[in-house]
Structure of Ribosomal protein S16:
Amino acid sequence: MRVRKARLAKYFDKSSTSYSMVLRLRLSLHGHRNHKTFRLDVVPARRRRDGQPIEVLGMWDPRTPFGETTRTVRLSVDRIRYWLGMGAKPSKKVQWMLDLAGIKPDNKAAKSSHDATTEPTPASQPAQSS
């Protein structure tokens, strides 16, 4: 899997550590008629389905070879977690595949902000008179 650094640079805001536009994890269609394969790509949300990806994260062949009962799926788990942590939104089908694979985002920023909101705030004690 390779990163297209020239394409990546124009979406990256150099003043912060976030991307300036919405990125999606989605499947792109490849292969010839009656033998379709899919690639899991990171693409800007407005780009067409089979457009140039920023990075290819995996592949899925939905066909089962003759005599076998399993389908081929290859995923780069570390890179998927990285992009989910950067705020990329998976499509519905990709979310289904990630749930089957047991891949959860390592979004430390979201966890810290969630922990801060769930902590109980100390209640102010009323003044005691004697």
Remarks:
- Residues 109-121 have pLDDT under 50 and may be disordered.
- Residues 5-105 form a domain with the S16 Ribosomal Protein; Chain: A; fold (CATH 3.30.1320.10).
